[in-house]
């Protein structure tokens, strides 16, 4: 009699693992279908068939989509390793010395995209014409282990231990006001009595929020916005004063620094990747480029 795992071995191949991994990453049938370039019914039938063959559920179905069970996560992890090994084989076949190529997905916040990455990205694109870029903005550190992105650029002093990366520098911040706004204020008006622009209640623990509450405990911001770029934009356009990174405001002709730089708000800027993919040619090219191209104001 064959051992109990014989059926699993005969039914579970690279194609099945690819489907399981796609559904774990996509979280919905539509998301998996988009990754696999098939229709949703194909994914649904394939997952149902695999589960029937194995006699085990691989995904729990719910309103939020498909969530992998413990076995589903284990199989997806094996699929990721196979995917990485295939990429290693392709890299070896084309030789690391050849021109880097392929899709490079980078995740970062809106603020870092517009003030740190985009200003230096054109030379990279010209230097590496075979690399395609996909830039996704979010305040959440996406799961690089599940290949939701290849590289994450984040402002943090505590990067996750399971990722590898390099520190590009220190993001510094200060209190700014627009020149037009200051011109409308009476001479000598205290900073605490001005119209403050702050992040909204979705980010109550942002360092700029904590600093303001500690420095001016009685102050109630007049205006609230959703991100630091919006704070900077409101300051530039004369709505009041606010805390913004020097990298956003650098040498802007219409603003004045009223307080800072503030050492309490200094935070490291990191470029991060999963250790299994850090060595790939396109990844190495971006890491090496950012190390020399990003210069943060002091």
Give your account of this protein's structure.
This protein has 298 residues and is of the alpha/beta class. It has three domains: 87 residues, Arc Repressor Mutant, subunit A; 104 residues, 3-Layer(aba) Sandwich (D-Maltodextrin-Binding Protein, domain 2), CATH 3.40.190.10; 93 residues, Periplasmic binding protein-like II (D-Maltodextrin-Binding Protein, domain 2), CATH 3.40.190. Helix content is 42%, strand content 21%. The protein contains eleven helices and twelve strands. The strands form four sheets. It has a five-stranded mixed β-sheet with strand order 4-3-5-12-6, with helices on one face. Helix 8 links the parallel strand 8 and strand 9. Helix 2 crosses helix 4, helix 2 crosses helix 5 and helix 3 packs across helix 4. The protein is elongated. It starts with 5 loop residues before the first helix and ends in a 5-residue tail after the last helix. Keywords: DNA-binding, Transcription, Transcription regulation. Belongs to the LysR transcriptional regulatory family. It comes from Massilia agri. InterPro entries: LTTR (IPR050176), LysR_HTH_N (IPR000847), LysR_subst-bd (IPR005119), WH-like_DNA-bd_sf (IPR036388), WH_DNA-bd_sf (IPR036390). This is LysR family transcriptional regulator.
Features:
elongated, Arc Repressor Mutant, subunit A, five-stranded mixed sheet, single chain, transcription, 298 residues, D-Maltodextrin-Binding Protein, domain 2, transcription regulation, LysR family transcriptional regulator, LTTR, DNA-binding, alpha/beta
């Amino acid at each position: 009699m064959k051992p109990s795992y014989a059926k699993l071995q005969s039914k579970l191949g690279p194609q099945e693992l690819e489907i399981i991994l796609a559904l774990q990453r996509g979280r919905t049938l539509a998301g998996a279908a988009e990754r696999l370039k098939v229709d949703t019914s194909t994914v649904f039938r394939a997952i149902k068939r695999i589960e029937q063959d194995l006699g085990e559920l691989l995904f729990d179905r719910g309103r939020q989509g498909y969530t992998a069970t413990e076995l589903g996560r284990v199989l997806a992890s094996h699929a990721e390793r196979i995917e990485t090994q295939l990429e290693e084989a392709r890299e070896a076949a084309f030789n690391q010395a050849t021109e880097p190529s392929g899709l490079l997905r980078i995740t970062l916040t809106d603020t870092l995209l517009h003030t740190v990455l985009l200003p230096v990205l054109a030379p990279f694109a010209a230097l590496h014409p075979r690399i395609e870029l996909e830039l996704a903005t979010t305040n959440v550190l996406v799961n690089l282990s599940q290949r939701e992105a290849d590289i994450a650029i984040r402002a943090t002093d505590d990067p996750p231990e399971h990722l590898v990366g390099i520190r590009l520098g220190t993001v510094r911040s200060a209190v700014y006001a627009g020149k037009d706004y200051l011109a409308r204020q009476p001479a000598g008006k205290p900073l605490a009595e001005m119209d403050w622009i702050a992040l909204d209640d979705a980010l109550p623990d942002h360092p700029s929020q904590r600093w303001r509450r500690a420095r001016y405990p009685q102050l109630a911001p007049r205006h609230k916005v959703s991100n630091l770029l919006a704070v900077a934009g409101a300051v530039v356009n004369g709505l009041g004063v606010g805390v913004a990174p020097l990298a956003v405001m650098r040498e802007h002709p219409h603003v004045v620094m009223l307080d800072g730089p503030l050492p309490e708000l200094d935070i490291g800027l990191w470029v991060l990747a999963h250790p299994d993919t850090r060595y790939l040619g396109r990844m190495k090219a971006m890491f090496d480029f950012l190390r020399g191209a990003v210069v943060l104001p002091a």
